[in-house]
Amino acid sequence: MKTKQGGRHRRPRGRARSDAAIRKAVLDLDATNSGDLRQVVHRLARLGHQSARDRELVLAKLSRFIEEKERILYDPTPDGLKRGQKRKYTAMIQGATKIQASIQTVLRILGPAALLDDPHWLNQVDRSGMLGRLGKWQDHVLTMWAEAAKRARHFTEVHRRRKLNAVKIYGLGGSAAPHDIAREVIDNFRKSSTPIEVVRADAPNPDHVTRNTLAILASFSGNTEETLNCLRVVKKRTSLLAGISRGGKLRTSARRLGMPFIQLPDKPAHPAYVLQPRESVCLQMTASLVFLGKIGLQPGSRGRFTPASLRRDRLLQLLDRWRKRFGPSVPFGRNPAKQLAFFSLYGAQWVDPGPRKAPHLPARALPYLLGDRNLSAVIHEAATQFRERSKMNVIEGSAPEDLHNSVESIRANVEARRANLECPRLACIFYDSVDSEPRIDVRLQVTRDLVIAKTATYAVVQAQGDTPFERSLFLTYFNAHASTYAAILNGHDPLPVPTMSWLKEVMGAIPRNANTKTPGARQRRSVLRFSRRRTVRP
Asked: Nearest CA to 286 among 137, 97, 488, 65?
């Protein structure tokens, strides 16, 4: 309502004061140091609950604020950092923190269900469209199936008479986890007795490589310095070599050495093109399984592993079915991936408070991912996605070993929370599958029932599918969605990784011969060192 005074229309004083308070709070959000942002977030959220009009005004201003800050993250690209650009890196980190504060404000106004069900906010945070690219895993399977089969034929023609005794796959991060899952899938099929190992190293032990060892070098960019150095080491021990990447120095080396090279999509127009290594899990996992199945591994107790074991056409149908269960268009109430995203952040199920009531968010939690050892690679991939996409600290473990060691700490945490003692809340997430060892599955269930269930909440993710590959693919696909939703709830665009990019640039500037730490070097006398002195006040 407007009033007429002195021939001019003016807004009521209360509305003007409210508008001014909102503008000031948004300005404070931009100007405040990171250590004081929490107070600004709570102040903006309170302003957003004063009236429907104030709510829309706060949300509109935060939306514009996020757009301004995201330009910093995407200038010129999410990984556009170069050496000597420390100021730009600092600006990117500050911008990401301000975006996180903005989304935390939106979350306190709308609640997680409304935020994740609104295409505006999904697109606002997921600027690169990672959720959209998750809907193209069928293209990933089809593309890499054909490419890997072609390169496997090349390999068998060149090495027709060589006996394969072992397989070692060299890679890091997003170019190691997919192959570790592939190794785990083949193990769970029980259709190969050929030892397969994923080596995450810079200087691998050459004594573990013989002339009958297949060495596969995996690097999404083709320029990972550790993987390139592994190639320098292993090519002196075996000629059974293969590479997989999008290009770079690895592709150049493959051409020079005449080794089979599995090409990841490198053209943006390709339907299976992705922007980051951690988006290539389906691409590289499919390539690894098809390539190894084609070249011929030694048979296992249940026969021989071949690509036919993977049932490609059924995989395509399943991926489409799964997308319809936890894709972005499926509402929160029926979407288990969205629900797990909230649980991973807060260790509790979301309960809608109803209309006109402010959402109540519990204290943040520390996710703890647990499952049988036959799922350890899948669990590690899930933890990696939460760390890189969602920017969350995560604990991971596999039974029986890790569960045996951690059951006391889990129990102590549960009881401390029950007694209202100061300690972090654990968000225990269990991964269950037919591939789990029966006795270990019982131990995990007993742990849930006796240690956690009476005083805390946990979540169980149940694998779907008829074969080890279908079940591993389901869990990986589900976790890719859940971690992306968690990134949005946490206020982070799931694509940019400025710190990782910055670290790679810094390491690239350090010559390999600059390492002065040798076994005979003089060690420091100090046993324990801290970065700087800090005074802990009672």
From this structure: 137
pTM of the model: 0.91
Instruction: Provide the pLDDT confidence category of residue 517 given band limits of 50, 70 and 90.
Output: low
Task: Give me the residues paired with residue 428 across strands.
Answer: 368, 458
Q: Write down the H helix ranges in 49-85.
A: 52-73
How many angstroms separate the CA atoms of 535 and 4, rounded? 60
- Coil, helix or strand for 495? coil
In angstroms, rounded to a whole number, what is the distance separating the alpha carbons of residues 199 and 86?
32
Query: What is d(CA 361, CA 341) in angstroms, rounded to the nearest whole number?
Result: 14
CB 217 within 8 A of CB 231: yes
One-letter amino acid at 344 equals S
Separation CA 381–CA 175 (nearest Å): 11
- The answer to whether the beta carbons of residues 170 and 237 sit under 8 Å apart is no
Tell me the pLDDT of the chain averaged across its residues: 89
Distances (CA, A) of 34 to 37, 45, 526: 5, 17, 33
Token code pair at residue 533:
């002195």
Q: Measuring CA to CA, how many Å separate 184 from each of 66, 198, 200, 398, 472? A: 41, 10, 16, 13, 9
Q: How far apart are CA 159 and CA 371, in angstroms?
A: 39
Contacts of 253 by beta carbon, 8 Å cutoff, 6+ apart:
228, 231, 243
Q: Are 204 and 160 in contact (CB under 8 A)?
A: no
pLDDT at 134 over 60: yes
Is the predicted pLDDT of residue 523 greater than 80, yes or no?
Answer: no
Pairing between β-strand 213-219 and β-strand 425-432 as defined by DSSP bridges: unpaired
Q: Which amino acid is at 239?
A: S
CA distance 333 to 356: 19
* pLDDT score, position 178: 97
Per-residue confidence at 534, pLDDT binned at 50, 70, 90?
low
H/E stretch holding 29 reads helix 13-31
Q: Examine the pLDDT at 393 and tell me if it is beyond 80.
A: yes
Quick check: 272 and 152 in contact, CB under 8 A?
no
Which 8-state DSSP code applies to residue 422?
Answer: S
**Type of residue numbered 453:** A
pLDDT in tens, 192-229: 999 999 999 999 999 999 999 999 999 999 999 999 99
pLDDT, tens digit (0-9, with 9 covering 90-100), for 60-87: 999 999 998 888 777 655 555 555 567 7
For residues 175 and 498, what is the distance between their CA atoms, to the nearest angstrom?
Answer: 18
Contact 417, 401 (CB under 8 A): no
On the 0-12 / 13-18 / 19+ scale of CB atoms within 10 A, 426 is: buried
> Which H helix or E strand runs over 365?
strand 365-372
